[in-house]
Design goal:
Elements (H helix, E strand, L loop, with lengths): L1 H6 L1 H16 L1 E5 L13 E6 L4 E3 L6 E4 L8 E5 L6 E8 L4 E5 L2 E4 L2 E2 L1 E13 L2 E11 L5 E6 L8 E5 L4 E5 L9 H4 L2 E2 L3 E13 L5 E2 L10
Antiparallel strand pairs: 1-2, 2-16, 3-4, 5-6, 5-16, 6-14, 7-8, 7-13, 8-9, 10-11, 11-12, 14-15, 16-17
Length: about 220
């Protein structure tokens, strides 16, 4: 064993450094579900800046130093406060914000978001199940981005008002009627934030034999 370690120490050091890099500096995150449609698609692999908010002790949630502040509208990866699953959602509510939703429409600190319809289409939500969908541009209370509403889904389209406590954040999926988010698992403590997603590295259509989506390679979020 000692001889094997001597002969492979360079490779082992590389693995150690690479592991520390992924757990402390930057990471990539495959997307398994459609909760962030139309911004992030199933089969996308997104690049995550782990130093956007905090420097953490590798492999832990222990914050060593704050490097930046989360911003309303950021696309964030985090550990679910319910079961620790890694999730990706949009940050909607900051500490001190008052957030509510009325008939799908957000109100943040008394300012109602504006909604501009973009397109109507049919979205597959399960095997042999497709529903009418409306895609809109949400702006005003948040930086402009696209969201999707589905017809015929019993989702939580009303809540609040909620005052976000210190050190907590409210997360929603852009696919508002098909997303398990803060409406279901509650607010997310800062120590569970992993990083800010900054763009798509690569993408494959998991519903069509994993064919590459070349137009999404090395792309930003639109």
């Amino acid at each position: 064993m000692s001889r094997w370690l001597r002969n492979n120490r360079g490779f082992l050091v590389f693995l150690l450094v690479f592991g520390l890099f992924r757990t402390a500096v930057a990471d990539w995150n495959p997307i398994p579900s459609g909760s962030m449609r139309p911004t992030v698609l199933e089969g996308d692999v997104v690049l995550v800046n782990r130093l956007a908010y905090d420097l953490k002790l590798p492999l832990t949630h222990v914050i060593l130093h704050r490097t930046g502040e989360p911003l309303r509208g950021d696309i964030v990866t985090f550990s679910s406060p319910k079961d620790g699953t890694r999730l990706i959602k949009r940050l909607i509510g900051l500490p001190g914000d008052t957030v509510e939703m009325r008939d799908e429409r957000l109100i943040i600190n008394g300012q109602a978001a504006r909604y501009q319809p973009l397109e109507r289409l049919t979205e597959a939500v399960a095997d042999n199940v497709a529903l009418p969908a409306l895609r809109l541009r949400e702006s005003g209370a948040l930086p402009p981005h696209r969201v999707q509403w589905l017809s015929g889904v019993n989702a939580r389209s009303d809540f609040g008002p909620i005052v976000i406590p210190a050190g907590q954040y409210l997360m929603l999926g852009d696919n508002r009627d098909d997303s398990a988010d803060s409406r279901y698992f509650g607010l997310v403590p800062r120590e569970l934030l992993i990083g800010r997603a900054v763009g798509v590295i690569a993408s494959a259509d998991i519903t069509a034999n994993w064919m590459p989506r070349w137009s999404r390679f090395a792309s930003g979020f639109h």
